[in-house]
Design goal:
Blueprint: H1 6-10, H2 17-29, E1 33-38, H3 43-52, E2 72-79, E3 82-84, H4 87-104, E4 108-110, E5 122-125
Antiparallel strand pairs: 1-2, 2-3, 2-5, 4-5
Helix pairs in contact: 2-4
Length: 131
């Protein structure tokens, strides 16, 4: 069984508590270790990612909403101490995140399910329940 590092936990600061609980449960369910690379982002950081082609929107769920909370996280897969980007690992992480979300009744969308610009590390709260 895996657990979140102090660094990962600190990167959840400012993220909506429901999404934090999903991530915390998912780490106990996953077959692939993961860490949190980003939770809340500033507008400037989002602009950087847009310019670099790592994002396609300024309407990011990472940027805190009117409630002051971010509603997205990016997760990275670890094999041992090595960061890995192999898609099958992100499908396994997504499975754990989806199971945790269902168990907690928190609707979450995975960037890997998007039709265009698939984003395997990205998970966000559904806008319908979490505007």
């Amino acid at each position: 069984m895996f657990r979140l590092s102090k660094r990962s936990l600190s990167r959840l600061d400012g993220v909506h508590p429901d999404l934090v609980e999903v991530v915390k449960l998912a780490i106990t369910l996953t077959e692939v270790d993961f860490g949190v690379t980003e939770g809340v982002r500033t507008v400037d950081r989002q602009r950087e990612l847009l310019r670099a082609g790592a994002s396609r929107t300024m309407n990011s769920r990472h940027i805190p909403g009117t409630d002051g909370l971010g509603k997205a996280v990016d997760l990275v897969a670890y094999i041992g101490a090595e960061v890995r980007w192999d898609w099958p690992l992100y499908h396994q992480i997504a499975d754990a995140m989806k199971r945790a979300a269902n168990a907690l009744d928190v609707p979450v969308k995975w960037g890997g399910d998007w039709r265009t610009f698939k984003d395997g590390p990205h998970f966000e709260l559904c806008r319908k329940r979490y505007p």
